[in-house]
Design goal:
This protein has four helices and no strands.
Length: 84
């Protein structure tokens, strides 16, 4: 017998997995059943989808590893100078 009812914590976890295409078909079915009767998890799912869409749309450019290392060295130099 397959347990079809899941808790809100499990529903939120499955929602997160589904956002990144990691949820199984059974997990998605269980999530959709849960969302039928749980308003809080429907809101969580909606907000999660909006957050993912916004992040993808933002087209954020991150610093490469070399730039981060240079900044870290400069910061450490400034920190030593400030305390000496």
């Amino acid at each position: 017998m397959i347990k079809m009812m899941i808790s809100c914590d499990e529903a939120n976890h499955v929602c997160d997995k589904t956002q990144y295409k990691e949820g199984t078909l059974l997990e998605k079915i269980k999530l959709n059943i849960h969302l039928i009767y749980c308003r809080a998890c429907r809101k969580y799912t909606k907000n999660n989808a909006l957050l993912t869409k916004t992040i993808k749309k933002a087209d954020v450019v991150c610093l490469d590893k070399t730039c981060k290392e240079v900044m870290k060295k400069d910061f450490n130099k400034a920190l030593k100078k400030a305390f000496n």
